[in-house]
Amino acid sequence: MPKDSTEKKQQIALVHNMKPFCAENLFGSKTRVRLLNLFLEHPSRPFYVREITRKVDAQLNSVRRELQNLIDSSIIKEVEGKIIPTENDQNGVAKKAKVEKKKFYITNVDCPFFEELRGMIKKMAILSNESLVKELQEAGDLCLLILTGHFIDNDDVSTDVLIVGDISEKKMQEAMQHLESLLAREINYTYMPKEEFLYRLEVKDRFVLSLLQTDKVVLANTLAFSV
């Protein structure tokens, strides 16, 4: 058997046999992991508590508790901001604006281990995708799963995830929504049936070739060739 084929099968077996990575086991709670993802992904953006609650899909009390834990750890900080509503009356005329003071939370970029923590979260995001492999395999015939774009800090790539195979689109959407919820961010993904992918590869489709030639993480590959 060719060496490349043996190595590929070993890699596939490794993905199948790996125990799914669970970030909350390391950080103590799922809410804390989602908060870290949110703040470290958007280090310059302030969030108010109810907005945070919606984005991380967690109970308000749990969010407040974990926010305080992150403040105590100097990972985020609390700031006071102002919101000016822009409501119009029935005639479309702007009402007199009321200034509302709200407490906001923002990443503390001066935290001495900010870069290290951000790098760790990105690596854990990739490991967390092992559960995505399992979900997609259960949704149909998964042939290829590639992470790129956001997962490798490449903003020049228009997609974060490439999925190739014959998969239930409904279950695939559910799997991606689950991943977005875990990472507290929107994920751009591209799905292609196997035959379409092979055809676009044969005709040297620019989009497909650019994805295969860029830096990437291959989580699953059952095709007859390496990518």
Automatic annotation (TrEMBL):
Give the protein name, as stated in the record: Putative transcriptional regulator
Protein species of origin: Candidatus Uhrbacteria bacterium GW2011_GWC1_41_20
